[in-house]
Amino acid sequence: MTTTSEPNSAPHTATQAELLTVTAAQDLASKRIVFAGIGLPTLVVALAQRTIAPNIEVVYESGVTGAHPSELPATIADSVLITDAEAVLTLPALFGYVLQGGRVDVGFLGAAQIDKFGNLNSSVIGDWHKPDKRLPGSGGAHEVMMNSEEVHVIMRRHDPRSFVDELDFCTSPGPQRIRAAGGVPFGRGVTKVYTEMGVLSRQGMYDELELTAVNPGIDPDDVVAATGWPLKLADNIVELPLPDPAHLTLLREQIDPGRVYLR
Q: Active site residue: 6, 18, 57, 61, which one?
């Protein structure tokens, strides 16, 4: 395993949320339809639309498709999502035609826990019947995982409590788990996971996640130590460049000046 560096811009300070957002936005360059969750995924698609992927069609769980919000939405039901949107669909149409029709290139999800195959838990921490913490649950995450061509996940915290060898509960199963249960997966499941430490990737539908990139100054051994399973390392791990100052300015002054998500 070797680590190589990409050219960095001039030194500057970026927050964890900014680094995650800029890194994830770069991987949307060739994508067309993206199903975005509220939170950092919203920032990611907003930045991508204004920089590397101006023609992305953004879909939200509330039924808004082709969204061009007048300002950053605070929830999936925020009225600003309607502004200049291409369409607002009923939920049966959204899930039955757009998602189950296989029209989404990338689904963006978050989770409380993730395992080495990209299965996600957003339901409970601890025992299902007596959980230590009860979480929001699936929402549309299960459908997004099942029917998107691929799924990108943003995890704000990278530690053994979030990156676990075994999920406390599986909310959104990936292809490996679906096949093991006798099902036939449609999409590739989770292909990218963005964390405070770097990027984990999966190539094949049934492969394990492996570390493919680290954030500036992060040692790959530290990522392994922060992961709850024996994390595989890619042969050539890239050290990601510092964010473009112009992209940081765009995030801070135009996309999220009120620090709705850039906390």
A: 61
Cα separation, 229 vs 219, whole angstroms: 17
Cβ(211)–Cβ(198) under 8 Å? yes
Instruction: Give the phi and the psi of residue 31 in degrees, each rounded to 5.
Output: -95, 155
pLDDT in tens, 208-254: 999 999 999 999 999 999 999 999 999 999 999 999 999 999 999 99
Sort residue 49 into left (φ over 0), alpha (ψ -120 to 50) or beta.
alpha
Q: Which of 238, 200, 244 is nearest to 50 (CA)?
A: 244
Which pTM does this prediction carry?
0.92
Handedness of CA 33, 37, 38, 42 (dihedral sign): negative
Active site residue 196: no
CA dihedral 144, 145, 150, 152 (to 10 degrees): 90
For residue 148, count CB atoms less than 10 angstroms from its CB and return exposed for 0-12, middle for 13-18, buried for 19 or more: buried
